[in-house]
Amino acid sequence: MTRASKARDADTETIEALLAGRPIVLVGMMGAGKTTVGRRLAQRLGRRFIDSDEEIESAAGMSIEDLFKAHGEPEFRAGEARVVSRLLREPGVVLGTGGGAFMNAETRAEIARQAVSIWLKADLDVLFARVSRRSNRPLLKTANPRETLKGLMDTRYPVYAEADVTVLSREVSQDQVAADVVAALVAHLGAMAAPEREKETAHGG
């Protein structure tokens, strides 16, 4: 086994021990890489990856775009909140959420109680280049999609910043971003566990 493989195994063991089965939830804008990074992260940690948008489409029997057209955004968001709440009860998963899911205050509170959240943060140029490759983004079907995207970022980024961990999604391989997520998780979970270890030591003494 190479030194890098040993380090990965040690990181995985650390993360899984400290999470004790809690979900890892990826939040961020459309195009941030939640699905591609999430799949690589899950593979690396030996977890199952779930995409909340795919679960919504499966339950509804139609695409996100068609759901928006048929029912409007408010009803879609209510259904999204119910699906995310259900998926948070799945043990040992990496959950990729839609861009608007974390904007729901009840969903944020539930994620905070039951999971560890990671914001994949990307700048406007990176996001717009990625989302421009696909035409199935209902929120961007406007006269000026770049300006619409910027407006969404201005609204959502202060809320995304409430996530437990922030990792920069940039134009590198998604494996590298997944590795950055692992390193950030190890640091965050270790820092959260340190006070508990100190209390146990003090109690034992």
TrEMBL record:
Mg(2+) binds at residue 35. Binds 1 Mg(2+) ion per subunit. GO terms for cellular component: cytosol. It is found in: Cytoplasm. CDD domains: SK (cd00464). Belongs to the shikimate kinase family. Monomer. This is Shikimate kinase. It comes from Devosia enhydra. The gene is aroK.
